[in-house]
Design goal:
The chain is mostly helical. The protein contains 14 helices and 6 strands.
């Protein structure tokens, strides 16, 4: 590993960077409001393009039934949130005359603001991919796309178009379907779709054998030790929001893998420390990542995985803000919310997609 990063971390950093670029453009083009950074009350609350992939792209002018959405998306969405935030409505189908109509038969329809959001979101993946071709070179992005496609075509199950909203313990809780009918009929997948499906396949392999989710290991457990790390430092060194870190640390404490307390040497800072059980988990997770990547070389071909890694390493560099080419496209617009907050030193080693709006760093 010339970059020192696992394959899953390389996939994550590319996917997170692509998503943030899309999100910055959406924020720039779409009237919206946020909790801390203003906006008009009649505008919808700002969300990530993940909500396009798991909901809004399926909502036609005629509407879509709740049950049909779940079948097409292969993953859950925060439907209640999207209603509350102003993008869609959910109401009984007027044509359904049954006295007791289940919610699964209700129709999801886009609001006027939701239709505007659809118009902004729809071209963004292709637009950002063209930016990447200019920035990194058509050959590099072409090689990345071909390497991802060669892996995706050999995955024996279908997966969502995006990283799912993580469930309890920050585990993947989406669905898989053991056929390729939808994927083969959907044309050429967008680059973030290919990245998502390969990363999800890796996460499924990891979480079949691990008591901890890949999200918790890759982002939090990985940077902890027995001496302790200041909790306030974790957002900068992981690229993950403090809210997502709080969720992950709570789970690690509950399972006995970590403890959070005041600095025994003095001061008011809180430290997160590994327990002996946490050290065992850390070592086991590292070994599991290596085994999976080795198994993938056998399953998909060493040349295919080597080509995929090489393309991703070209994009990610050493993963630091100063030396990673991915950060070249992450300069936010001056009026964007990311311009108003502390910038991370790296990108997440696994997307932290939460119910809060789907942002890939848990924001």
């Amino acid at each position: 590993m010339t970059s020192g990063l696992s394959l899953s971390a390389l996939l994550s950093q590319a996917l997170v960077a692509f998503t943030i670029e899309c999100d910055n453009e959406f924020e720039h083009q779409m009237p919206h409001r946020t909790t801390h950074f203003g906006g008009s009350r009649q505008d919808p609350w700002l969300v990530s393009i993940v909500m396009w992939w798991n909901l809004m792209r399926f909502v036609s002018p005629e509407g879509i039934r709740v049950a049909e959405l779940e079948e097409l998306a292969l993953t859950e969405t925060n439907l209640n949130g999207m209603v509350r935030w102003g993008y869609v409505t959910v109401a009984p189908d007027p044509a359904d005359t049954r006295p007791k109509r289940p919610k699964s038969a209700s129709l999801i329809r886009a609001t006027a603001e939701g239709r505007h959001a659809q118009e902004v979101w729809q071209p963004l993946p292709a637009t950002i991919e063209k930016c990447w071709q200019t920035r990194f070179g058509k050959a590099t992005i072409g090689s990345l796309r071909e390497s991802l496609r060669s892996v995706v075509e050999r995955i024996p199950f279908d997966l969502p178009n995006c990283l799912p909203i993580l469930g309890y313990g920050l585990f993947y809780k989406g669905r898989v379907r053991l056929n390729k009918e939808r994927r083969n009929s959907s044309g050429t997948p967008a680059l973030p779709v290919l990245l998502s499906r390969v990363l999800l396949a890796f996460a499924l392999a990891f979480e079949r054998e691990s008591d901890l989710s890949l999200a918790i290991y890759a982002n939090i457990l990985r940077v902890l030790d027995e001496k302790g790390v200041r909790v306030s430092d974790l957002p900068g060194v992981t690229g993950v929001s403090k809210e997502a870190i709080s969720v992950a640390l709570g789970f690690l404490e509950k399972t006995g893998a970590a403890v959070v307390g005041t600095d025994p040497s003095g001061g008011r800072s809180k430290l997160a420390r590994l327990t002996p059980k946490g050290r065992q988990s850390l070592d086991s997770c590292r070994q599991l990542l290596q085994r999976i990547e080795g198994a993938w070389e056998t399953r998909f071909g060493a040349d295919a995985i080597r080509s995929l890694r090489q393309a991703l390493e070209t994009l990610a560099g050493d993963s630091s803000r100063e030396k990673s080419p991915l950060f070249q496209g992450l300069v936010p617009y001056p009026d964007g919310w990311r311009a108003q907050v502390r910038q991370p030193e790296t990108l997440p080693h696994f997307p932290m997609v939460l119910h809060r709006g789907g942002f890939p760093d848990g924001s």
